[in-house]
Amino acid sequence: MTAAFIRRNDFWDTLKLSECLMGHKHDLMHKAVGWMLREVGKKERQTLTDFLERNATRLPRTALRYAIEHYPEPERQYFLKKK
User: Residues 15-23: contacts with CB within 8 Å, 24+ apart?
Assistant: First the structure.
């Protein structure tokens, strides 16, 4: 998806595509979205956290789980319970 942009600390495209693909019907797309969001979080945790604060309730469960994989347990539980 947008790994090249993420490597350059340019997260805008990833976040916009993630918003557009939230409603996609295929689980593999949810995994891809979660994976890219997780990569954003590795580079800049606060950007991912801000995105999740706005969108965690709309994000498919698979994407959310992938995105928060590296968060400490209390933060993971916080976002999972927002659903």
Answer: 15/40, 15/47, 15/51, 18/51, 18/55, 18/59, 18/63, 19/55, 22/55, 22/58, 22/59, 22/60, 22/63
Spatial separation of the C-alpha atoms in residues 28 and 7, rounded to whole Å: 22
Cα–Cα distance between 25 and 58 in angstroms, integer?
A: 13
pLDDT tens-place string over residues 8-62: 999 999 999 999 999 999 999 999 999 999 999 999 999 999 999 999 999 999 9
The H or E element spanning position 56 is: none
Name the one residue in this structure whose structure tokens are 């976002």: 79
